[in-house]
Amino acid sequence: MSAPQLLLDFVYRNETQYPNKVWLTQPIGNDQVINYTWSEAMDQARRMAAHLQSLGFERGSKIAMVSKNCAHFMIAELAIWMAGYTTVAIYPTTNAETAGYVIDHSDSVLLFVGKLDIWDEIKPGVPADMPMIAFPLAPENDYQKWDDIVAATDPIEGNPSRESDEVGLIIYTSGSTGRPKGVMHGFGRMSDAVKGMVKELKLTGQDRGLSYLPLAHVFERAYVECTSFAAAHHIFFAESLDTFVQDLQRCRPTVFISVPRLWLKFQLGVFKNMPEKKLNFLLKIPILSGIIKKKILTKLGLDTVRLAGSGSAPIPAALIEWYRRLGLNIVEGYAMSEDFAYSHLSTEKFNEPGYVGVPYPGVKVKISEAGEILIDSPGKMLGYYKQDELTADSFNDDGYFKTGDRGERKANGLLKITGRVKEIFKTSKGKYISPAPIENIINNDSCVELSCVSGAGMPQPYAQIVIAEDLRDKVSDPAVKSNIDSALHELLQSVNSQIEHHEHLEFMVVVADEWTIANGCLTPTMKIRRSEIEAIADPQMEAWYNAGEKVLWA
Prior knowledge:
Elements: H1 7-17, E1 22-29, E2 32-37, H2 38-54, E3 62-66, H3 71-83, E4 86-90, H4 96-106, E5 108-113, H5 119-122, E6 132-134, E7 144-145, H6 146-152, E8 167-172, E9 182-186, H7 187-201, E10 208-211, H8 218-231, E11 234-237, H9 244-251, E12 255-258, H10 260-273, H11 276-282, H12 286-300, E13 307-310, H13 317-325, E14 330-334, E15 344-345, E16 358-359, E17 364-367, E18 372-376, E19 383-384, H14 388-393, E20 401-409, E21 415-420, E22 425-426, E23 432-433, H15 435-443, E24 448-454, E25 462-467, H16 469-472, H17 478-497, E26 508-510, H18 530-547, E27 551-553
Parallel strand pairs: 1-11, 3-4, 3-5, 4-8, 5-6, 6-7, 10-11, 12-13, 13-14, 25-26, 26-27
Antiparallel strand pairs: 1-2, 8-9, 9-19, 14-15, 15-16, 17-18, 18-20, 20-21, 22-23, 24-25
Helix pairs in contact: 1-8, 2-3, 2-6, 7-8
């Protein structure tokens, strides 16, 4: 029996069979790009691998990278793997304390510094004696330069292989609470998961994708980077938030994955140019409908998308339905760092708004007596780095991972996420509240960007909300603020009419400051950090309850 193909085997195949095919397109400013063919990218990876080996690190040593998405992130990952080492990626939006923790906890021996906006804020967390190598797009620095090393080093020869049970990468979870955990993934299970993704998504070398969600997160790493190893398709990179639409239009992706908050931002951008009521009216006119749909998708750069996906957090069903009216069929998936993003996916046959799909082939699913989703995936992690006890506690006796998510399944396998086990809280009346379903209803409203339902120990829960971006700069106008206030009163009544009496929201609070990654209220994949948001609100909560108002402005 022949050995199973691993990720590096696919890369060597691409180097041989498609040497002149463009793999990576990197913008470098002023609407200029650099294209890297498989041959060119692999030549650089081989030279850097030879350099890393010359430093004398033990096999399996951890090498860290801190960078926004760029071509050299992926090329460096291949170099690290070919040299016999393990990759540790650090979020480019992290702070010095977290960066220092990850470097120390992972026992990293070297750091690649890449494309970054806040390197001066991250740098204090890096040990003074840490060897560093700078990618071509790194901020100004005096470290060893990638280009200089590559120019002076002969490439590693042959096709260095890795064993199935060797650790290829450690993903430090972004998490919503506590220290990040180091999720270890082996080459065998990663490769099995990626082969399953490529087959189910029908990815081919003709596809195009845009890489912009953080590569330090499993979602982008698996579905964009690693699938490109196996399918050999073309990856484009986004230069910045300011150029994002131009980057999308350059790529004209056939496959595009995003997170709910960005899908919502796209929608709000459409409404900014064309009011929702007017758009709804025009879409009902047969002659105009097709023209309007095509125009909107083309302007977004999504007119050639054959597969659109959403993950990382629940997406409101109404938002999926809105995009489907435009002709963009968003499919929702569900997975996590611990299964290398190989868990659930909506399919053409099993695809319903509000549900996250059915299990991928080979994935086994159970719902515990407590309602927790249990998963046994071919992409299952090897464990948490240096946390054997936590690893053991994370699986049941049958080897199923305890996700911490609550869910319900239909007979056909469709899964609905109903909240987090640990997010459920109890009111002073002894009633349990699951905040996520209520937040999904609130987030469906066009006035709202994000919400957080809280109220542990109080008679009834309440919601904090961040109003939509296009409204935030208008609330200084008393008339506009009054209209928004009235709309939120109506929203509160509407939400309460859709939920159980013990779940009724006592009031809504419009928060003054936007929730961002920078202020700690969002994770790097834009999920709310509930504990941080509640901690900020805690000093004011008693006054809010005593105010007796239904909508308050913080």
